[in-house]
Amino acid sequence: AVVSTQSTGDGKIIDIRSSVASLLGSVTVAQTDVVKQIQTGESITGDVATIRVKMGDKMLIVKLGYTATIGDLHKFISQHTESQFEIRTTFPRRVYADMAETLEAAELTPSATVHARSF
């Protein structure tokens, strides 16, 4: 979607893009195979999980199949941070340390928000 750079509000021209950008902060979409398929219009087989990863003031969106593992998620997060981290949720409080566990088994489907907490 294209966002207009300006709009009128009460007869005044206002800058929309910068205000929307400031609300969103820094959001990055990981280039997973699923995202590449979406971008090229290919059909996607199987269910897709959308994982929002909070990394301080940054947000990473990762789209993976339900059968992808915590290790797969960890790999994509590590491409966007230089520090060591653990994947966790705040409620219910849980650390995802089993790299072989699937996203579905970890109950991170169809969508979830996790934190990449540096240590």
Description of the structure:
By secondary structure, the chain is an alpha/beta fold. 22% of the residues lie in helices and 39% in strands. It is built from three helices and eight strands, in the order E-E-H-E-H-E-E-H-E-E-E. The chain has helices at residues 16-24, 33-40, 70-78; strands at 6-9, 12-15, 26-29, 48-55, 58-65, 85-90, 93-96, 111-118. A hairpin with a 2-residue loop joins strand 6 (85-90) and strand 7 (93-96).
What layout of secondary structure does this protein have?
Blueprint: E1 6-9, E2 12-15, H1 16-24, E3 26-29, H2 33-40, E4 48-55, E5 58-65, H3 70-78, E6 85-90, E7 93-96, E8 111-118
Parallel strand pairs: 3-5, 4-8
Antiparallel strand pairs: 1-2, 4-5, 6-7, 6-8
User: Alpha-carbon distance between the termini?
Assistant: 37 Å
Question: How many strands, what sense, and barrel or not for the largest sheet?
Answer: 6 strands, mixed
Mean pLDDT across residues: 86
Shape: globular
Structural class: alpha/beta
Lateral strand order in the biggest sheet: 3-5-4-8-6-7
What gyration radius follows from the Cα positions, in whole Å?
A: 17 Å
The helix fraction, in percent, is 10-25%
Instruction: Write the element-wise H/E pattern from the N-terminal end onward.
Output: EEHEHEEHEEE
Please report the number of helical segments: 3
Total strand segments: 8
Question: Strand percentage, roughly?
Answer: 35-45%
Low-confidence stretches: none
